[in-house]
């Protein structure tokens, strides 16, 4: 290998539960992709033992200078966070959201599509197609962390306020991101999802900005749909969607629904992007730590592997990224399916099959 090979430094944070198993699977596949490109690029992994076990020892989910440590990397490859005994909001805010917010990863990209050989609860006929990208506003909205809890003298019990924050700048940048993404796709369409009939400040600002930004993209079809109607539409008529842009909470819920419709939460990949590239971006499966199956070797690694493909795209290696997706498709098409997809293949079986299939595509 010549020393001119671009080497990307990747921080891996397996985190909790099945995070460990699926991150190892993803690393094995990505290393094989790098090897098969014959020196086009290399990956230099460094693992960071942060998460709920670390919290048990130190009282923190990651070190105080954790963001400083991560700054030196080209990307972060993340497993999952959350474990019984650590309150969910502590583990989430202490690690995952600390990184997303600290590195201004304001665009969360979650592709949803059918996979060959995988039965979807939606697939009505063999020719039904489903291919969306949910673009989630990832820096403000309902997860802005604004509010508080107090004892109320008036009611005699506690009162809590949880506010959403919507800024014109925040709305505009996620919408431009969605429109730019739509332009790269076969179906050039952006569907904006809100609840602006009931939430008359933030969501109406969102709608106003959407209309204004749409004016700059006359070649992209647009529509606005209320989130309750959208949930029904995902199930009843999933055709005719391409890019779906929504606020933090709405897109979180819709993308979980989307991945279930594709066959399983275990398939779903995501990228938390800092599009300006001032800070590292983070790539992680949509699923959580799955304590019910952790350590049993049956976790579906595909969401993590496909998140690795999104990372390769981000690192400027689209051929390797596409090869990983093609290999995953070959594996599911061949019937090597993990338990959540109705099969009997273990995490290790799916990983080995994907590594082998890569040899056929690269
Ligand atoms: P979080 O709060 O982090 O989203 P959660 O408890 O809501 O976590 P998951 O940890 O994703 O959700 O688990 C939800 C269900 O999906 C569980 O039954 C789990 O076993 C299953 N599941 C999650 N990830 C996988 C996977 N990779 N393979 C197989 N099953 C999975
Ligand atoms: Mg969840």
From TrEMBL:
It comes from the Bacteria. InterPro entries: ICDH/IPMDH, IsoCit/isopropylmalate_DH_CS, IsoPropMal-DH-like_dom, TTC_DH. Belongs to the isocitrate and isopropylmalate dehydrogenases family. The keyword NAD applies. NCBIfam families: TTC. The keyword Cell membrane does not apply. Transmembrane segments: none annotated. It comes from Georgenia subflava. Keywords: Manganese, Metal-binding, NAD, Oxidoreductase. Residues 9-354 form the Isopropylmalate dehydrogenase-like domain. This is D-malate dehydrogenase (decarboxylating). It catalyses: (R)-malate + NAD(+) = pyruvate + CO2 + NADH. Its EC number is 1.1.1.83. Gene3D superfamilies: Isopropylmalate Dehydrogenase (3.40.718.10).
